[in-house]
Q: What sequence folds into this?
């Protein structure tokens, strides 16, 4: 043991948010840290194209968890971080979205710090915010929604989060992650609160080429999502801001085909 | 007028989120679009270091609004976008954080689209998520908070958002932007809901070198923030997740000074 301790490196852990999926939606700082990493531990929702920023001699380990394909337990990931920090030096923990939004980033950070390992955070773009934005759904809009509430559809006990019942009573735009398997329960809760007519969008694989979206309202979204075969990973957005979506208004965007209004143009140019 | 219309370019508007302040927290995609821009219209909260990604011949216009220093009205900004899209081509609208979180990005987008101008969104890291993350405050944590609610402290009418009273009843981590001027009203609402002992952090200039933070609980944060001279722009985080902050636990981080627990180390290495 003393022999092992004598060879330990100082070690460092950097938690990096990979963003929602599109590899160009990582931050500049994130790519720089990837280039400096001795070891990268990455999750299922991370785009593997990001590993191209790493040195060729960096150790790259997939530690993702997928339903029915359990790769590493949280305790094993914590251990890997500490082990590699001491044996190789700089460990980068690359997580989908932002490391602190419905990830267990804090547990990993605290475990590493309990060994005296220096830690740093580089935030990432959370899918909760970016995926609706990319669909031109604003999470807030003056006079429509003054706030947004981000909730997990499935808690650690596998049941529906009690926050969803409170959210259904609020005027916030409600964004539910990991909720497609609970869609029936979610719409039931919103209906019970008189929100059957509130617009809903479900966006699967947001920011990626295979992105799919379906829109409806609380009453209709379940059957629409079945018909359009929308599944996980997906984000559910419930609120009047979804009306901003042209598709829902039956108002298909005709980009560059609308004649500029000459009266307004004149006022702008003259 | 016909003379003017004959010279019009096709035009394009790209809304780009600049992130929370640190210029390295913009996305790769954001820097690429800045490099391609013919015109950049940027806000007060945007780090001017980002303008270095622009071509030297790009037109760069500050359209920021600051209290007591009103530069451009929203209508004027909308007009500038359309005017420059037709006269110069590709307009980038660079906004602090994410363009669709408490910005008026949607209004600008719709105005441009009504002239047939093609639009695109590049999301940015919202301060609401990143600034707590950078302080190692997780917005969600298993068994502590299953959701987070992002609210503006000041509505367009200048009064406090009614959502704050609902948030005080919820179990969500509550993040209030633009709320420091309403701090007394906010803490009064939380106290009325029996939350006097809930931890609070206020972070000013998050992600920048001049970042400042103060921590306390709902009962004490107002006097602490006055003593520590925390002012706008700042983010208020209310919830038990703030306990993760070492400062609050009186548990100053002693990075690389803690001796690794030999028993655990042994179990990891052997």
A:
């Amino acid at each position: 043991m003393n022999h092992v301790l004598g060879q330990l490196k100082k070690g460092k852990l950097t938690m990096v948010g990979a963003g929602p999926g599109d590899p160009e939606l990582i931050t500049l700082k994130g790519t720089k840290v990837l280039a400096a990493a001795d070891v990268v531990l990455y999750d299922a929702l991370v785009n593997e194209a990001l590993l191209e920023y790493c040195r060729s001699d960096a150790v790259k380990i997939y530690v993702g968890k997928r339903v029915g394909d359990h790769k590493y337990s949280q305790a094993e990931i914590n251990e890997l971080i500490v082990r590699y920090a001491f044996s190789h030096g700089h460990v980068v923990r690359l997580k989908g979205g932002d490391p602190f939004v419905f990830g267990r980033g804090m547990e990993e950070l605290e475990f590493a710090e309990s060994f005296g390992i220096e830690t740093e955070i580089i935030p990432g773009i959370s899918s909760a915010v970016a995926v609706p934005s990319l669909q031109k759904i604003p999470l807030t809009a003056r006079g429509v929604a003054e706030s947004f509430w981000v909730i997990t559809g499935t808690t650690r006990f596998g049941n529906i989060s009690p926050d969803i019942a409170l959210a259904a009573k609020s005027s916030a735009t409600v964004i539910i992650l990991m909720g497609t398997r609970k869609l029936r329960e979610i719409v039931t809760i919103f209906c019970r609160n008189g929100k059957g007519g509130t617009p809903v969008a479900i966006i699967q694989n947001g920011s990626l080429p295979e992105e799919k979206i379906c829109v409806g309202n609380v009453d209709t979204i379940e059957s629409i999502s079945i018909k359009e075969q929308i599944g996980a990973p997906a984000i559910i957005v419930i609120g009047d801001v979804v009306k901003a979506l042209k598709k829902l208004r039956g108002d298909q965007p005709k980009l560059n085909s609308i004649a500029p209004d000459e009266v307004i143009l004149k006022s702008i140019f003259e």
Summary: Chain B has a mean pLDDT of 87.
